[in-house]
Design brief:
Blueprint (H helix, E strand, L loop, with lengths): L20 H21 L3 E7 L9 E6 L3 H17 L6 E3 L6 E6 L2 E6 L1 H7 L1 H4 L4 E2 L9
Parallel strand pairs: 2-5
Antiparallel strand pairs: 1-2, 1-6, 3-4, 4-5
Helix pairs in contact: 1-2
């Protein structure tokens, strides 16, 4: 393998890491809430934000959402990537984009999962991460 053609994905410290964790966690929470609102405003249902601090060494927040179709789920992933770029949470990877049941947008500190209803029920991340604190993300002033 030609090592000259290999490039590494850009990385930044996660809020789980020691350096700067006090500064990054509030902005990760804000981004997770913004991602949840974006998903809900893009016709996703059952949108949940889970705080994984102390439970996962990988990220601090999961955003779980159920999409209506593969096309709509791709739109949500595209818009999340744009939002991440603007808020310094650019995704380091998007998985499942060409599939039709689960798209994962990995923004390091915040990982968003957009599922079909059937796939969400099958993997049941809501219960798998049942010890995680649920974060209130809906704007109470509009109720």
């Amino acid at each position: 393998m030609d090592q000259q053609n290999v490039t590494e994905a850009p990385t930044r410290p996660s809020a789980n890491q020691e350096a700067g964790s006090g500064e990054r966690l509030p902005s990760a929470r804000e981004f997770a809430i913004a991602a949840a609102r974006l998903a809900a405003n893009t016709r996703c249902s059952n949108v949940v934000v889970l705080e994984l601090g102390g439970l996962s060494p990988v990220c601090d927040f999961f955003v779980l959402a159920t999409g209506t179709s593969a096309r709509q789920m791709r739109t949500v992933a595209d818009e999340l990537a744009e939002l991440g770029e603007k808020q310094n949470f650019a995704p380091i990877g998007i998985s499942g984009y060409e599939g039709e049941s689960w798209i994962l947008v990995d923004c390091v500190d915040v990982v968003t999962h957009v599922f079909t209803n059937e796939t969400r029920a099958y993997y049941d991340l809501d219960n798998l991460w049942g010890d995680a604190k649920r974060v209130e993300w809906q704007d109470n002033s509009s109720r």
